[in-house]
Design a protein that fits this description.
Elements (H helix, E strand, L loop, with lengths): L32 H13 L4 H18 L5 H48 L2
Helix pairs in contact: 2-3
Length: about 120
């Protein structure tokens, strides 16, 4: 297989392998620019910190309010139980999303293997 025609950020030739009929690896293929942009945007959205950071801040404030006697300890315990359930839900959603993405990647790889197999056997 041939190597990619692109030049990396450090000025060196890319060593990525190209598909037949292309001069660029998938990471540099101009035809895949939109797909790369969508993937990068999706990756940025999936980074931890958003909801979990807000939940952490709420729990910290709750602890302070309980210690300052602005919130009853029993009420704080119930809120903490709700926060735990919410945390488990966030973990489930993340695992579910990862599973969906993994299945999509496997399906794409299977399709690629099938196409290559068919092209070699025709």
């Amino acid at each position: 297989m041939a190597e990619c025609a692109a030049i990396t950020r450090n000025g060196r030739p890319c060593k990525g392998l190209v598909r037949p009929g292309s001069d660029h690896c998938p990471a540099h293929d101009p035809a895949r620019a939109d797909a790369r942009r969508r993937a990068a945007s999706k990756a940025a959205r999936s980074k931890p910190g958003g909801e979990s950071g807000a939940l952490k801040d709420q729990l910290k404030k709750l602890a302070e309010d309980i210690l300052a006697r602005r919130v009853e300890p029993k009420a704080g315990a119930v809120v903490t139980q709700i926060a735990n359930a919410y945390t488990r839900l966030l973990e489930f959603e993340k695992k579910f999303k990862e599973q969906e993405e993994f299945e999509a990647r496997i399906a794409a790889l299977e399709e690629e293997v099938r196409r290559k197999w068919e092209s070699r056997n025709t």
